[in-house]
Write a structure and sequence with these properties.
alpha+beta
């Protein structure tokens, strides 16, 4: 492991500043003019060596000065030098960095590792498949057996693509069951979730936050982001209306919520306790607030899927008797839902969806020979990092989402991940899935109305005391892979993001000033 505590620069190519360092001129003599005598070869060699040293020193000073300026941007915002790490690789090969090999919690920049590892080892066209099977013969409109849903770890069955119907992707299944002449199912609706083993939530995650959407459990079967949408409001005739989406027979809502007229009194709470299905809504709700939606995780993804699907079948007119029938010798396919891995990445990266990242990491581990648990996913991601990159001794992988505070990555490694994308055939899929500064995703409101709006694609990350950013800055000279991490005192999130944005703008200005005719004050 390299231990870097000072500003470090690495110069492999001097082209960035060569054209700006005027070191002499050459006059072409007119015909017949007296030519000076040739310089001795030894003297010429000495001049060339001095010239090379001058140019090398100029580039090193440029990079060193830039690194110092980026640190100064942080200290002006009252961030400590020891709290920040960064690594930039300029188009000429110069590396500008500070504490770039110090292992820090990456927060959601961990998703960049998951995306790159999956694309590199599985490919964007790898299919995530969920199958519906019948277990038994169909006689006189009756399925003499069970329906079996076989999960393959897809995180996005009935994802958020259709805001009007959270079950839009399952509805064709009901039609396909009827098309086989099935009007009644004598058996049960069963779930096969053996594809991904182990617990659905990671032991590192904060217990008090497990009901929040960003702590959603993951498994072989996932539906509606493994959340229940609690739709609160409007207030009608003094009553605060509450409904849940999608309809879930297991859920019971208990509400003590009351309307209020003063905005300062508007404060409510939505809870789900332990592994129960009861949702509690309490507090005061402003009567002019309209409709608000809160998301509460489900305690068990498979139970959630089966219960909702069972209700859909009954609502569509298909009777389910629920008789325990011995398993059939053969499973017959009825329907399937398929998504490509690449199609899941924009939601995972632009919206920073934790469920998608943990699910895909677990699927990667399963495909690569593991059991699909969180621990096997961590092992697989670490193996990939160690195979692909240098200086990985301090790397620690715990989950795919970055929610664990025990993950450890370096700015150097995250920058290398971006560099790998730039030279890989899957890179365009990765970069097209990242938030675009001032345009969309978690960067929609950053770098707006600056020269970098629409020119930075990067993954953001935030947990208490950690703010990270890794991606590419598009410059006239070429793409600049980078990573910036703040890890330190809590309550500095705004300052850390401000430092990151100012840093990117300063690097942009430095590159402009190094280009003839493009100086910017």
């Amino acid at each position: 492991m390299r231990d870097r505590t000072d500003l470090v620069t690495d110069t492999n190519n001097l082209s960035l500043l060569d054209e700006h360092n005027v070191v002499g001129s050459l006059e072409v003599p007119s015909p017949g003019a007296r030519r000076p005598s040739r310089w001795p070869p030894l003297f010429l060699i000495s001049v060339l060596l001095v010239l090379q040293l001058f140019l090398s020193s100029s580039t090193i000073v440029f990079a060193g000065d830039l690194a110092s300026q980026l640190v100064s941007e942080a200290t002006r915002l009252k961030l400590l030098q020891k709290e920040i790490s960064f690594s930039f690789k300029l188009p000429d090969g110069t590396v500008v960095e500070h504490l770039s090999d110090r292992a820090r919690a990456p927060a959601s920049c961990m998703k960049l590792i998951v995306a790159a590892a999956c694309l590199d080892q599985l490919g964007a066209h790898h299919l995530l498949q969920t199958n519906l099977m019948r277990m038994g013969p169909v006689q006189d409109g009756v399925l003499e057996g069970d329906l079996l849903v076989v999960g393959g770890g897809d995180p996005a069955i009935c994802g958020r693509e259709n805001k009007d119907d959270p079950l839009w992707e399952l509805r064709p299944w009901c039609a396909q069951i009827r098309s086989q002449g099935i009007k009644r199912i004598r058996g049960r609706i069963l779930a096969d979730v053996r594809y991904l083993e182990g617990p659905a939530v990671h032991p590192d995650w904060p217990v008090e936050q497990l009901l929040r959407w960003y702590c959603a459990p993951s498994g072989a079967l996932n539906l509606n982001d493994n959340c229940i949408d609690v739709v609160i409001g409007p207030v009608i005739e003094g009553d605060v209306r509450i409904k849940i989406r999608p309809p879930q027979p297991l859920v019971r809502v208990r509400s003590t919520l009351v309307p209020c007229v003063n905005k300062k009194d508007h404060l409510y709470r939505v809870d789900r306790r332990g592994n129960g299905w009861e949702i509690f809504v309490s507090g005061k709700f402003l009567n002019t607030s309209g409709v608000r939606t809160e998301w509460v995780t489900v305690p068990d993804p498979a139970d959630n899927f089966v219960s909702i699907f069972l209700q859909m079948l009954r609502d569509s007119g298909i009777e389910v008797s629920g008789v325990n029938i011995p398993g059939a010798s053969r499973a017959v396919p009825i329907a399937s839902i398929k998504h490509s891995l690449g199609s899941r990445l924009p939601v995972m990266l632009k919206n920073s969806q934790n469920l998608y990242a943990d699910s895909l990491a677990r699927v990667l581990a399963k495909v690569r020979g593991g059991d699909g648990s969180f621990s096997s996913a961590a092992d697989e991601l670490l193996r990939w990092i160690q195979k692909r990159f240098k200086h990985t001794d301090e790397i620690v992988i715990r989950d795919g989402s970055g929610l664990s505070r025990n993950n450890r990555l370096t700015a150097n490694v995250l920058r290398q991940v971006v560099e790998l994308g730039l030279v890989s055939d899957w890179g365009s899929t990765l970069f097209d899935s990242l938030p675009l500064a001032g345009i969309d995703g978690t960067l929609e409101k950053r770098l707006v109305k600056t020269p970098l709006q629409g020119k930075v694609r990067a993954k953001t990350g935030t947990i208490n005391g950690v703010v990270s950013l890794a991606g590419i800055l598009d410059s006239d000279q070429g793409p600049v892979p980078f990573c910036l991490i703040y890890q330190g005192r809590r309550g500095r999130t705004s300052a850390a993001r401000d430092w990151q944005d100012r840093t990117l703008l300063r690097v942009h200005r430095a590159l402009l000033n190094a280009t003839p005719g493009r100086n910017e004050q």
